[in-house]
Amino acid sequence: MSKQKTGTLLIILAGCFWGSMGIFVRKLSAEGFDSIQIVSIRVTLAALVFALISVIKDRSGFKISLRDIPLFLGLGFGSILFFTVCYFTAINMMSLSTAAILLYTSPIWIMLMSVVFFHEKLNGRKLTALAVAFLGCVLVSGISGGGVTMTGLLVGLGSGIGYGLYSILGTIALKRYSSYTVTAYTFLFAAAGSLVICRPADMFAGFAGSDHLPGLVFFCLLTALVTAVVPFLSYTLGLESVEASKAGILATIEPMVATLFGVLVFKEPLTVFSGLGVLMILSSVIILNMNPGNP
Q1: Helix crossing, 272-288 with 253-265: angle to 10°?
Q2: What is the pLDDT of residue 96?
Q3: Fewer Cβ atoms within 10 A, N terminus or C terminus of the chain?
Q4: Strand, coil or helix: 156
Q5: How far are the Cα atoms of 19, 37, 38, 85 from residue 205, in angstroms, in the given order?
Q6: For 222-250, what is each residue's pLDDT tens digit?
Q7: Number of domains present in the structure of the chain
C-alpha cells in the first residue's frame, strides 16, 4: 500500500474514533462533570500518555528549539483548547445541530489557509468533495430552525477555525519534529491551559466524592485513549503524507460515525436526511481519492 493511501486510511480512522466522543461525554456528564472539565480530563490524561509514548519511543524527542515554542503554543492553546472551548460554548448558545454545522466549516478554513501558507492548488475535485462533504454534515447534523446571534455565530465559526488550525500548524511542525513530539507537546500545552479554566478544585472534588473511583479513573483514561490519543496520533501521522486540505475533508467522516453511534448505542432515529448525509460524506471521500496520482 502506498504511503498516501496509508495516510488516507489513518485520517479516516481518526475521524471514526472522534465520532465516538459522544458516548464518553454523556457518561462523564452523568458523573457530574461539566463540559470544560471533561475537556481538561481528556487532554490532561492524553498529554501524560503522549509524554510516556515519547519517552519509550525516543527521549531525544522531548528536545525542541526555543524558537518553536510559539508553534506548540499555537497547537495547544490556539487549536486544541480554543476550538474545544468554542465548540462547547456554542453548544450552550444554540442547538447542537447548528453548533456541529459551524464546527464542520473547518475544511473550508483548512483549504483557504493551505492556499495561503502551503500554496496548495484548488481544483474541481477538491471543491466538489468539499461542497458534498459540508452538505452531508449539514444533513447529518440536522437543520435547525432556531435563531443564532452574531456572538453565537462568531463563537461557532471560531470552533471551525481552531479545529482547522491543527492541520495547518501540525503540517508545519511535522517538517521539524516527529509525530510523537508534535502530539506530546501539543497536548502538554493544551492540558496546562485547560487546568486554568476548568475550576480544578471542583473537578477534583468530583473524583473524591465518587463511590466508584477506580472505575471512574479507568473510564477517564479510556476516554483519553479513544477520543484523543489514538485519533490525534493517527491524524498527525496521516498529515505526513496527506495534504492538509484533503485531510480536513476526510475527517468529516466524524459526524457520520457519530450519527451511527447514536443509532446503535442510544437508539436515536436515523432520518432520511441523516441517511442521505451519511452517503454524501462517503461520496466525498470517494471523490477525493479518484485519480490519487493527481493533486
Answers
A1: 140
A2: 58
A3: N
A4: helix
A5: 29, 12, 14, 22
A6: 999 999 999 999 999 998 888 887 888 88
A7: 1
The residue with cell 508553534 is: 71
3-state class (DSSP) for residue 192: helix
Grade residue 142 by pLDDT with cuts at 50, 70 and 90. low
Alpha helices (runs of H) in 19-34, residue ranges in sequence order: 21-30
Look up residue 143 and give its three cell numbers.
Answer: 437543520
Identity of the residue numbered 242: V
Amino acid (one-letter) located at 196: V
Assess if residue 293 is contained within a domain. no
Domain membership flag for residue 294? no
Contact 170, 239 (CB under 8 A): yes
Let me know if residue 98 belongs to a domain.
Answer: yes
More confident residue, 285 or 210: 210
Q: How far apart are CA 169 and CA 245, in angstroms?
A: 12
CA angle 229, 230, 236 (to 5 degrees): 85
Q: Which three cell numbers stand for residue 88?
A: 462547547
Res 145 pLDDT > 50: no
SS3 67: helix
* 207 part of a folded domain: yes
pTM attached to this predicted model: 0.79
CA angle 105, 159, 139 (to 5 degrees): 40
In order of 143, 159, 185, 198, 202, the CA distances from 137 in angstroms are 10, 15, 31, 30, 35
Instruction: Give the HSE-up count for residue 117: Cα atoms under 13 Å, Cβ half-sphere.
Output: 16
Q: Which domain holds residue 281?
A: 3-288
Start-to-end C-alpha separation, the chain: 18
**How confident is the model over 264-277, as a mean pLDDT?**
75
